[in-house]
Amino acid sequence: MDSGNVAWILASSALVCMMIPALALFYGGMVGSRRILNMMMMCFGGASLVAVLWALFGYSMAFGNSVGGLGLIGDITEFPGMGQLLAADEAASIPVVLFAAFQLFFACVTTALVAGAAAGRMKFGAWMLFAGIWATIVYFPIAHWVFAFSSADGSVTGGWIASGIKAIDFAGGTAVHMNAGAAALALALVLGKSSGWPKMEHTKPHSRPLVLVGAGLLWVGWFGFNAGSALSAGQSASVVFLNTAVAASAGLLAWALIERLRHGAATSMGAASGLISALVAITPACGAVSPLGALAIGAIAGAVCSLAIELKFRLGYDDSLDVVGVHLVGGIIGTLLIGLFATDAAPNAVNGLFYGGGVELLGVQALATVTVLAYSFGITWILAKILDRVVGLRIKPEDEMRGIDIAAHSELAYLTDEDPVELGSPQRA
């Protein structure tokens, strides 16, 4: 065991865990004042449920030996309850149980991201049911495809993307962001549009400062997300750390510039969105590119995603908090641009087209992209359709108009003189 590596991954795990409340703040500020509690509860509730499932069987599905050697799903019977991970492996640089904890928070964050597409109009119970099943049949298998590597001695077979076609995804552009974005699109289509969409006074962002605070905390957490994925405290983590920092900054500036040129002002919401878009894009590429490549990817993501969020108005789907425009589009950008900007001087040690590597890597990245998008969207759409038929996904129209917080949680974030002091459960002053 290397104590420095252990300390770094412990810290990185805590940083990724912090991304859950950070996302709750980011999403919470973007919704109306009578929707914020539900939005934050969707993040916390979904993440907590997935953590339980991860301990019971999720880790086995994601990182167990591939069933039949096909690279599609891990053996669910290999680590049930994760008790087998308690025995120390003295040959490992970090404890396997620590790696399991680190990856647990990836599953939690990915599930919480999907909630942004359903803001203010989905039953809380239906969301929890959806989140648990979705993680089981969508996230856990895709995590196996992308994050599970075959062992050097061939005794353990990994996922077909990681160990078969060997596509590059350093920290989750496909498994996390594209996966969440495709699922969000499917869920939004099944849920349908919010009442009064797209001109809805009751759904406008109620706290831009909360959005900025959430985005800032997400940025901090992302260093654990990306640099922690090096699984050691060394050169690779250091390169990834730098790439993450400069890409995020370029994305914020690019989005702000596009806003200024198109609409006459650079907004705080745009700055936060540009930051997150670039962080999404650099996630798969952070170990494959130079700092100049990271700057390019961040700037491209900030500019393109600022235009992509308008697709929902042109195509008529209500993606409430732009999960599609930011995470789906940003994930695609970052994953595909690896095929252009990758350099063998970076930790992944492979060249893309611009560095003399040809088009093969671009083709591999495209195959991983298309497959993850198709599986995530298709299975999520089927799941949402079934749940809508069985339990119903939408809250009542009148509850949607007055705000879901009262209907779902019997609470309000901000009480006025007209509001009752008690709404089903005691409210402390």
UniProtKB/TrEMBL annotation:
Residues 7-414 form the Ammonium transporter AmtB-like domain. One of its GO terms (molecular function) is ammonium channel activity. It is found in: Cell membrane; Membrane. It is a multi-pass membrane protein. The chain crosses the membrane at residues 6-27, 39-62, 92-115, 127-147, 167-190, 210-231, 237-258, 265-282, 288-309, 321-342, 362-384. It comes from the Bacteria. Keywords: Ammonia transport, Membrane, Transmembrane, Transmembrane helix, Transport. The keyword rRNA-binding does not apply. InterPro entries: Ammonium/urea_transptr, Ammonium_transpt, NH4_transpt_AmtB-like_dom. GO terms for cellular component: plasma membrane. Its main location: membrane. Belongs to the ammonia transporter channel (TC 1.A.11.2) family. This is Ammonium transporter. The lineage of its organism: Bacteria, Bacillati, Actinomycetota, Actinomycetes, Micrococcales.
